[in-house]
Amino acid sequence: MCGQPERHAVSRDFIRHKGINSGSYLRKRSLTKEQHRNMTTTNPADTITLKLILVSGKTKEFPFSPSNSAADIAKHVYNHWPMDWEEEQVSSPNILRLIYQGRFLHGNVTLGALKLPLGKITVMHLVARETLPEPNSQGQRNREKTRESNCCVIL
Asked: H-type helices in 19-130, by residue range?
């Protein structure tokens, strides 16, 4: 089929999820590779899309503004808890914690402060935990241990 763009079948659920006018789309029943790629990877340029991963491995993407804080995100996710996450439902948004690059995000940290790229997908873990460690608490403990071990007694 020279000169003709390669086409891929797309499900009706995908059409509904992306908000495509299903009447006009269903007449065609397929998209070119370029159209399919644009629909699956395009994110609004002024938002940060977070792909949140639960301990169970389940994932979901949510769009946020750079001004949203970790606490705002926890409340939003709690209020819009996905149906397929039902088994992991928590009792309160106050126990939801975000982990980014191996560190817990405290409630007032904004996505903009983390310098996350706009229009891109950023992966974070979402866990249920009552309390957070104090910032740099691990580093403080390490310094205290090294101070104790640096002394010696000569008789």
From this structure: 22-28, 33-41, 70-79
The secondary structure of residue 15, as a DSSP letter, is: H
Tokens of 92: 């309160």
48 within 8 A of 73, measured Cβ to Cβ? no
- CA distances in angstroms from 146 to 7, 142, 143, 149, listed in the order given: 63, 6, 5, 5
Secondary structure element (H or E) that encloses residue 59, with its range: strand 59-64
Who wins on pLDDT, 32 or 123? 123
Residue 123's identity, in one-letter code, is: V
- Structure-model confidence comparison of residues 105 and 155, the more confident one: 105
Distance CA 114, CA 110 (A): 7
Residues 100, 126: Cα–Cα separation, whole Å: 9
39 SS3 class = helix
**Cα angle at 121 between 120 and 125, to 5 degrees?**
150
